[in-house]
Amino acid sequence: MLGTMQERQLTLDHFVNRAETYFPDREIVTNTAAGLQRTTYGAWADRTHRLAGVLDNLGISAEGRVATFAWNTARHLELYFAAPCSGRVLHTLNLRLFPEQLTYIVNHAEDEVIFVDRSLLGLLVPRVGEFNTVKHIVVMDDGVPNEIPSFDGGPEVHDYEELLAGAERTEFRCADEWAAASMCYTSGTTGNPKGVTYTHRSTYLHTMAAMLADTIGVTEADVILPVVPMFHANAWGLAHAAVASGAKLVQPGPDLSPGTLARLIEEEKVTLAAGVPTIWMGVVEELEGRDTSALRVVPCGGSAVPTSLSKRFEEVTGLPILQAWGMTETSPVGSVAKVISSLEDSSEEKLDELRASQGLPVLGVELRVVTPDGEQVPWDGETQGELQAAGPWITNGYYNDERSAEAMTEDGWCRTGDVAVMLPEGYLKLVDRTKDVIKTGGEWISSVELENEIMAHPAVAEAAVIAVAHPKWAERPLACVVLRDGAEATRDEILAFLDGRVAKWWIPDDVVFIDEVPKTSVGKFSKKTLREQFADYELPGVADA
Ligand code: ADP
Asked: Which residues are known to be catalytic?
């Protein structure tokens, strides 16, 4: 028997219509080189409809890919909806990809137009000659007076505001929830980046998941600061959730310096601010002494949140960081490490462990940790396996890519490449990324856990642990440590600090002090770069062995 419910498509136009109808005066604030710019959902929605008209006027094809090369701004949010709501596909380009990877993804996605912030022209223009399908470059003037280029025989160059001024308000066309709405490429630490395409349906459901009280719980009363870029896995769903709920949105633009972010949090009375751990490591110190009473949740993921960071955050703001796990392939939110009510009275140590874990799967997502024999691991906190994910906003492979098959299991689960255990409480705990785990004498050491412990040392600002080749043990850990300004610690002090905190055989063979841990294009520790840098590093004792 079928139910009596209406067959309505889960398409993104609904979010825009709702914000325009019920929250027309809610603000979208953008921090620009010229200061804060304020607009409202009412004005934004009207411009978004006109932008759909601009895409028609430019002759972008029915399912054409509309690329953005832009900071988090109100204009970027217009593109976020105008492209999918006019039947096209938004493609957010990562500003920090290697140039050849940028060219690869533009050509692979067959982008027809690129919308670029004027301040970013310097990064894009030198590559334009290599783009095979781009017919238009639309410059969004953000007040940085870079020269406007022209391309002889190449793409036409336009001004965003001029195009908008010349376009009519156009009705949205997106009738099929299964149609692609947007696409995002992984940052490609090995090989070329891989493209994930999100449907209207997956984005709609993922947005609702971000609004669940047991996850991030976005509501209309929130003031959201997505420090996470709009090109990094959909700004973790926050741009969509802001529009869907009618929450005020604070877009940080190009200036992601800790002082500016801290000021925005205080002055705009931000309730929800999200970014990768390396962002908060800087911002937390700038929040000291500021009024952060409006803050209610700080979701953080992309890499493991060190306990020391969460504790420092709690010291300064009264709030521990809320860790979430996800990946481009999972839209991205897959699990959230909220302490559930029945565990709230746990020991301090247990609470730390739960907050340092990746948490419980979000309603709608299924997660399993599978051993090489194909068995799910027991909830013992010890048995390791590969984390696999399934659900309506988890990808089923990559866009037009031979690597899709190896990314999926035979029964249709997405293989994450993360090694994990299950805690007795059912919380997921990531051990490491498969490629970062240190394989020593047939056993595995979690670089993440070692880093977590080293960063608990008061003199340490950042620590990344990598595998270095060892003649006897295959690999041994090397700790790369950045000391806090003015702080001092020796190699032996760091190693002695670890004694008793981790198993003896986990203690790194050496410590090197560096000025900064290199970061990936989305601000994570780039252990690949460190591994290259220390590829020939001779561990103590090895030469005499
Ligand atoms: P990239 O692969 O370019 O880093 P993603 O953001 O898609 O881009 O990366 C997803 C990966 O980030 C996950 O597979 C996992 O290894 C890591 N990750 C995400 N969230 C967490 C977290 N809370 N703790 C530890 N690792 C995380």
From this structure: 186, 329, 439, 444
